[in-house]
Write a structure and sequence with these properties.
heterodimer; A: about 110 residues; mainly beta; six-stranded mixed beta sheet; five-stranded antiparallel beta sheet; B: mainly beta; seven-stranded mixed beta sheet; four-stranded antiparallel beta sheet; about 55% strand
Chain lengths: ~110, ~120
């Protein structure tokens, strides 16, 4: 059974801090790992990672995948209060036609 | 592009009634749609995978007679919670899978908050 474990489960930081969120996984026929940000409604897509060692970057957010050690990290630099959200990690397998297995998420709170 | 809508966005109903939630891909055809359930402060739990024109595939522990899924067209899937009870109160989210080349990307709807009194 596919499995995704995120850590920490929750995190409180102050504006300007840098945070690193972790995601480890076990999946048969790995295809991709995805990061989402969820605020009050449904998740919004952040990154899709398929290859090891290639950093994906969007503004202050970046993410990288290690397919040998089976984990990914999501970095957020110079955090802002608007970054407060649940960050979800999910994995897809080739055999599942887009079906994702989600981790429990990391709840990030950024204090002013 | 790649917008997914859900209707209604919230619904309150009495125990014993049935509630239908619609999920539409507005600007693309989705051969596969997924239905998730999310409890407060918890992650998304996949309920079922819905393919156009065929029966939905339910995850273990999800009652298919309780949660009826119909994928009538390439842009519409519906989830009907039959004989709803307070424990069915939850946030229901659908996603639609869009294929680009060999990649399937999921796009989420905004979710439906169901409260059963």
């Amino acid at each position: 059974e596919d499995k995704v474990v995120q850590s920490p489960l929750s995190l409180v930081v102050h504006e300007g801090d840098t945070v690193t969120l972790n995601c480890s996984y076990e999946v048969t026929n790995f295809r991709s790992l995805l990061w989402y940000k969820q605020e009050k409604k449904a998740p919004t897509f952040l990154f899709m990672l398929t290859s090891s060692g290639i950093e994906k970057k969007s503004g202050r957010l970046s993410s990288i995948l290690d397919k040998k050690e089976l984990f990914s990290i999501l970095n957020i630099t110079a955090t802002q209060t608007g970054d407060s959200a649940i960050y979800l990690c999910a994995v897809e397998a080739f055999t599942n036609a887009g079906k994702s297995t989600f981790g429990d998420g990391t709840t990030l709170t950024v204090k002013p | 592009g790649a917008v997914v809508s859900q209707h209604p966005s919230w619904v309150i109903c009495k125990s014993g009634t049935s509630v239908k939630i619609e999920c539409r891909s507005l600007d693309f055809q989705a051969t596969t749609m997924f239905w998730y359930r999310q409890f407060p402060k918890q992650s998304l739990m996949l309920m079922a995978t819905s393919n156009e024109g065929s029966k939905a595939t339910y995850e273990q522990g999800v009652e298919k007679d309780k949660f009826l899924i119909n994928h009538a067209s390439l842009t519409l899937s519906t989830l009907t919670v039959t004989s709803a009870h307070p424990e069915d109160s939850s946030f229901y989210i659908c996603s639609a899978s869009r294929r680009a080349g060999e990649t399937d990307t999921q796009y989420f709807g905004p979710g439906t908050r169901l409260t059963v009194l």
